[in-house]
Amino acid sequence: MLQTNNYQELIQQIGVLLSQGRQKAVQSVNTILVKTYWEIGRYIVEFEQNGSERAEYGSKLFERISKDLSHLYGKGFSRSNILYMRKLYLSFQKSETLSHILTWSHYFEILKADSDLEIGFYTKQCELERWSVRELKRQMKSLLFQRIALSKDKEGILELSKKGHQIGKPEDLIKDPFVLEFLNIPEHFQWHEDDLEEEIISKLQNFIMEMGKGFAFIGRQYRMSIGGKHFRLDLLFYHRILKCFVLIDLKKGEITHEDIGQINLYLNYFKKEEATEGDNEPVGIILGNHKNEILVEYATDSITNKILLSKYQLYLPKKEDFQNFLEDKLLK
């Protein structure tokens, strides 16, 4: 029974019920629509498999289906929609594997991927991170699958496709490169590290989405007093899955050994001065335009703190830059 102390509370409770009911109704409609389109795809594939009937309609089959269904049932049956209904069935041949969270608009974008591995990854990642269609488009354009897969072996890439990107250890936080095209900084513009930080803060939600699930922002230019001297960290986050502070240092140019030594100092400070019971050891991430792999190897050797280094770029990557490398990994 509803417990109401006054009229306004009654209205609020009714409002909550209506909001929940409408949300469930929309989700139910989306689930039914996706399943219906999957069934349409199945009918088309089964029709195609009947060779003699398929030959009668020739290469204009999809145009004819689109025209006839649009005439009978209205909008929603363009040729591209028909093709993606067919691809939906071919990509998810067991209807039980369809998501009850994703809409047809999500699937329409996911099915644009070139491979079954990418389709599996983006489907799972959409479920894990509750991406909007707009965010899904952005992640696909930024080649998220390829950027994460670069650090994986063949088994890791296959696992990525089945389960999405799971955060279990600090190394899982890294993409190489991070793509910051949403900052809208021209590639050859004369800017400074402070400008980069300012733009990130102004578009913090986009930055957190690019960093990935679990990041909670604490502050910028975080002040530390060590041995009578004052230091400031560019960006400080807490990662709720890894249960640790994440310190981020931004560099305009190449990551140097001095940068590595500096963030190692900050990590030691956080372990002793900031971490509380239940916190795991902090993680340091240095983002730079580029890094010298040999220098990084020597600079980080024997350091016990977890320091991760990655590049960032201010423009969307090109698929061909990743494709051959990934194909080689999968063939091994």
TrEMBL record:
GO terms for molecular function: nucleic acid binding. InterPro entries: PD-DEXK-like_domain (IPR053148), tRNA_endonuc-like_dom_sf (IPR011856), YhcG_C (IPR009362), YhcG_N (IPR041527). It comes from the Bacteria. It holds the Pfam family YhcG_C. Residues 15-147 form the YhcG N-terminal domain. Residues 172-324 form the YhcG PDDEXK nuclease domain. This is 50S ribosomal protein L31. It comes from Chryseobacterium koreense CCUG 49689. The lineage of its organism: Bacteria, Pseudomonadati, Bacteroidota, Flavobacteriia, Flavobacteriales.
